[in-house]
Amino acid sequence: MSRLEIRLEDAGVRRGERWIFRHLGLALSAGRCLAVLGPNGRGKTTLIRALAGLLPLAEGRRQAPAAIGYVSQSIGDTVPYRCLDVVVMGRARRIGLFGAPGRADYRAAEEALAQVDGLRFAERPFSRLSGGERQIVMLARALVTGADLLILDEPASALDLANQALLLKVIERLRRDGRHAILFSTHLPQHALCVADEALLMMGVEEHLQGPADAVMTEANLARLYGIPIHRTRVAGRVEAVVPVFLPAEHGPGPHRP
Amino acid sequence: MTASSAPDAVSGTAAASLPGRPWLLAAMAVGLLAMMLVALCAGRLSIPPVTALRIVAAQLLPGGLDADWSSLQERIVLLVRLPRVLMAAACGAGLALCGAALQGVFRNPLVSPHILGVSSGASLGGAVAILLGLSGAALVGLSFVAGCAALLLVGLLARIDGRSGVVTVVLTGVVVSALFSALVSMAQFVADPDSSLPAIVFWLMGSFAASGWRQTLLAVPVILAGLLAIWAMRFRINLLSLGEDDARMLGVRVERDRWLIFAAVALVEATVVAFSGVIGWVGLVVPHFARLLVGSDHRILIPASALMGAAYLLLIDTIARTATTAEIPLGVLTAIVGAPIFALLLRRRQKQEMGE
Description:
A: about 260 residues, alpha/beta, Rossmann fold, six-stranded mixed sheet, 9 helices, B: mainly alpha, about 70% helix, about 0% strand
């Protein structure tokens, strides 16, 4: 059994009187990847922030390393720096209070950008990038921290299809090196099937389905999770696809229901 | 680890290069030196630049130069203008650099060094000192202590459950400032209208007129120490400017680092106010100008702001003492010059953002 990276035991987070989630437990060790799925407002981001240590638990225990490579969902428009300078900030733990990044730090930042195919952004101001491009740069910054645990909050939410493929490739490569544990939330079940060993389905405040991704993400469970019919099917004989069945006509007048 | 993705593209293109335009810093340093020379020469008795340079040089290499200047010229340059020039440059550098640092930490370009309540505190200290008939070292000391006490008060009030968010700090700073300003008004109200009231009013408006070597040698090292501390934390300010969550996840001890910077700012600000009164606008306007020229990265913005702030306040001080026969208070001039410039900058920025 490889090294344990992060563990939650009987964890709960509360906003005022309302519990966002309760009695949630999970454990992830190096070389493994866990995907968190749930509909909007079910508390995915809250869970991610609690895992990252940014939100205190109202109950339960959290055990995690100090250094975590983290990609948040809200990435400010207000970051006026060059992308390479944004990425190099991932080295902050190695740079003292009065220090500034040196040649080695910049080399590491460029390598990380190269890993996510983002070298073309290096010289551009971060605030001028599109949402998807920012996510790629932020992923590079998470990599350059050198942390063994990566926590990514919907890293694919703004990515086009080619970049989704790239993201999955990067996650898979990190998973295979055996050193990293990767935890990400997503609205795309297919991503979970593709790279995650385990899946966590946030069904309700106190109900969480957890297990091997393939076993837990049954058509029935996914349909219950999102409230619409969902099919799993094989494409080209080997690729597993998850197809949500959208039936706009049944639900209202137009295709743009909120 | 990177084997599969274009390792040849990695070979240090812009690695370790400072972002922005570092050569601008050199240009600014030259500009500052030129401004210092102008300030040494200008005045009721104007002195040719070469003579002023030779007088200063003669002090640095004794016996190397023949004295072809009058002793009056020498005394004006060495005893009157030089200490004042150094003081004005240090204060300008201090105010502008503190402004740039706080704008980064607060992630708000409208923040000035006065936001922490330090200058109101120092004002109150000075006003009370004048009211008590104190002057010189006692006035400076009381003002300095009150300025630092103001920051301490802000720190205590803004701390809730051992933490303090930036918004809380700003609001607490505003509250403490308002309280101390009211107390300054109170001091003016009870002051003797013939003697201490005008003294308080003029002291508050800011001036370097009292800056001789004694004051300069006391103030400049303290200001420089504060500046050096903030400059050393320039990359930390970049990290803090990302926002609390991001900075924390990157391993920054946000709370501690923030207060370290605040403490250094308080040191500089309290010293400036104690020796020269309240000089507004420098800390707000100059960082904006610097940002236009060198960009937002604090590794270059911090030194650029310091150099530009020094030259700017020197220019203002030179105008203040040469424009009319009486000295115009500095705080008045910086506001008259600073407000329109700031309005222009804001419009320009707005236009740029709408154009994108």
